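Hi R.,

Here's the chain you asked about this morning:
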Amino acid sequence: MERLRERLDSALGEPIAKMGALSGGDLSQVYGITTSDGRTLVAKFGGRLRAEARMLEAIARTGCPAPEVILIEDDLLVMTRLAEGRPGTRTGYAEAGAAVAELHGATADRYGWCQDHAFGGVPCPAAPSGNWAQFWAERRLLAWPEALSPDIARRLERLARDLAGRLPARPPASLLHGDLWSGNVVFDGAFSGLIDPACYHGDAEVDLAMLTLFGHPPAAFWDGYGRLAAGWEDRRPIYQLWPALVHLRLFGPGYRGMVDRLLDAAGA
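And here is the predicted structure, written out as tokens:
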């Protein structure tokens, strides 16, 4: 860690008073740092950091709070540290819902992103497309069938053939956080912001499906977010399959049951 501290001293041009590892570093080394002038920052080493910096800046431009990028190099990202610690209050969750709605209100004319992304060694193809069902089939459900068991791959292929009748044809191409689980929604009583994005443009329901994969935000979040389109519960397992497949590849067969349950719920 001493070498990392020296690297940060040099990069920031001021001494680091305090430095410690943070949780959540499955795909990068993540440290909380305090500079000699009292600033509290986060430093990440490893991963696709220039891409993450662009995503954080894209989120912030919508008005949704996110860490401010302080320094970006090929293998180092330094950003402000959001206030955290206290659980979200009712008002905090309502603020979070409104902020995510603001994020989703920023739209593009095509689905996808300017470059492919990845979760560690798991590719996330993102070549732009004008056809949402085709994007979800080719860039998500069928992104890497060769990496899956044959039975899962067959069920995904069957579902993909039916997506044109299951997903909206032209939903707004909303700016998505792309990995919106509860751990990436930060509170200190009030809502502080979103961290660790994997952005692209797509149906806003993708983020909401991810947010309900491992838990359910309280009613205040949904009050802040606003009305959902009719039938979103039917589309939710189709959208939840993508993070479940990523988890299956990243963390192994413990997520096989989740994938099977979602395939069943999607009628595949």
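One quick note: The CA atoms of residues 133 and 163 lie 6 Å apart.

Cheers,
M.
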